[in-house]
Design brief:
Number of strands: 15
CATH architecture of the largest domain: 3-Layer(aba) Sandwich
Radius of gyration: 22 Å
Strand content: 5-15%
Bound molecules: 4'-deoxy-4'-aminopyridoxal-5'-phosphate
Structural class: alpha/beta
Strand order of the largest sheet: 4-10-9-8-7-5-6
Oligomer: single chain
Length: about 450
């Protein structure tokens, strides 16, 4: 058997990866040509690669490592749980202590009246659960025609057939014949990119009212639910105008539409509250969770369900749905330990009082750069638009994402992982990041943007 270790030369590891590994969201041939980066270890907010470079991870992995890397308490809890009960299922009249404890703990931190959880192993699976759950709920309520779920263009809700259908990403729909039937997409509340001459408040209302128009067109008796992230993450860190969420809540209430808040990114402290719904002051019926519930140390996803909805489900026969790893004991034990750390180390207070205000101030400095517009942050999420003309809120003429991609490459060269969504640059650092580390992150981001700007100027593209 091949012995493959951290100590092998990078080139050998790269060759093996290229020979055997199909990467998610990746153009395989391009990756082979560029060579993959091999991350070997991580601590705090820093990653180390196989060449010994230290890179500040401003994306918390994939928006998930909320308490930072290297917390050995989680490893110890996982080892203990593996020794005691490595696996058992929660089907067929059985349960176990870690899943009982996690469900009960989630009920304590979730908004009032949301005391039930259905578990999965990822956000995508949880959103698949949500599709079946809300449709089953309305059928149980004697309204079997209430089946349509309204989502938004440029939303991201996962990569399974259901998750990608809820999502509003056209390139994803184009592969595999999506969306599945009964899913409708309205426009997103992205004022900087799509607001035209409206002011943000007016635009927020207009975009929310598309939900009402859609409900009126389809008929209230046909629409089951509306799903959205409190703040869009993978769509580009899009923070809606203040008028948006109150209007969405009014529409859902008046038309008896279930509100699903996808908290996969916004949950577990990202906004300074346990959930983004609390920061946005909305009252969801279901919250999708994943990522930060374990800080990424184990795969857990789930749906936190309002009691009134759970009661209907419980009273109407069997819900024919579940995953082998729903409520996996090791993953549940790790989630509990992560939630203990967030609570005992007052991570939410750190976000609210220290990290988020510091990030907002430091990030705002990027707005002084001639190529940067739309400087936004909320809690520990931040984004900027790269633009050839910030006054006109213009987009680059080159194919969308070209400039963003160049900038992302300059980020790696400058020792920081940021992500580009089109020509927006975004960050989502670990919640435990210190003010000094935030300054380092923003300094490196500035250098990456500025080097991109210089490249464009050298090529007469700016
Ligand atoms: N919803 C949102 C808002 C997400 O950001 C993601 C992942 N980026 C998902 C769902 C899907 O989660 P997973 O990748 O765990 O399936």
């Amino acid at each position: 058997m091949l012995q493959i270790t951290n100590h092998m030369p990078t080139e050998d590891l790269r060759a093996l990866d290229a020979a055997h590994h199909l990467h998610p969201f990746t153009h395989g041939a391009e990756l082979k040509e560029k060579g993959v980066r091999i991350i070997t270890r991580a601590r705090g907010v820093y990653l180390t690669d196989s060449d010994g470079n230290e890179i500040l991870d401003a994306m918390s992995g994939l928006w998930c490592v909320n308490i930072g890397y290297g917390r050995t308490e989680l490893a110890e809890v996982a080892a203990r749980q593996m020794r005691e009960l490595p696996y058992y299922n929660t089907f067929f009249q059985t349960t176990h202590v870690p899943v009982i404890a996690l469900a009960a703990r989630l009920a304590e931190i979730a908004p009032e009246g949301m005391d039930h959880a259905f578990f999965a192993s990822s956000g995508s699976e949880a959103n698949d659960t949500n599709i079946r759950l809300v449709r089953h709920y309305w059928a149980a309520m004697g309204k079997p025609d209430k089946q349509v779920i309204v989502s938004r263009k440029n939303a991201y809700h996962g990569s399974t057939m259901g998750g990608a259908s809820l999502g509003g990403m056209q390139p994803m729909h184009a592969q595999g014949g999506l969306p599945i039937p009964g899913i409708v997409h309205i426009d997103q509340p992205y004022w900087w990119g799509e607001g035209g001459d409206m002011d943000p408040a007016e635009f927020g209302l207009a975009r929310a009212r598309q939900l009402e128009q859609t409900i009126e067109e389809l008929g209230e008796d046909k629409v089951a639910a509306f799903i959205a992230e409190p703040i869009q993450g993978a769509g580009g860190v899009i923070i809606p105008p203040e008028t948006y969420w109150p209007e969405i809540q009014r529409i859902c209430d008046e038309h008896e539409i279930l509100l699903i808040a996808d908290e996969v990114i916004c949950g577990f402290g990202r906004t300074g509250e346990w959930f983004g719904s609390q920061a946005m002051n909305i009252r969801p019926d279901i919250m999708t969770i994943a990522k930060g519930v374990t800080s990424g140390y184990q795969p857990v996803g789930g749906s936190i369900v309002r009691d009134t909805v759970a009661e209907v489900l419980n009273a109407h026969g069997e819900f024919f749905h579940g995953y082998t790893y729903s409520g996996h004991p090791v993953a549940a034990a790790v989630a509990l330990e992560n939630l203990r750390i967030i609570e005992e180390e007052e991570v939410l207070r750190h976000v609210r009082e220290v990290a988020a205000p510091h990030l907002a101030r430091a990030w705002a400095r990027l707005g002084e750069h001639p190529m940067v517009g739309d400087v936004q942050s909320f809690g520990m999420l931040a984004g900027v638009a790269l633009t050839p003309d910030k006054e006109r809120r213009a987009a680059f003429a080159s194919p969308k994402g070209t400039v963003g991609q160049r900038c992302r490459e300059r980020c790696f060269a400058n020792g920081v992982v940021m992500r580009h969504v089109g020509d927006r640059m975004i960050v989502c650092p670990p919640l435990v990041i210190t003010p000094e580390e935030i300054d380092t992150m923003v300094d490196r981001a500035w250098r990456a943007i500025d080097e991109t700007f210089e490249q464009l100027r050298a090529e007469d593209l700016f």
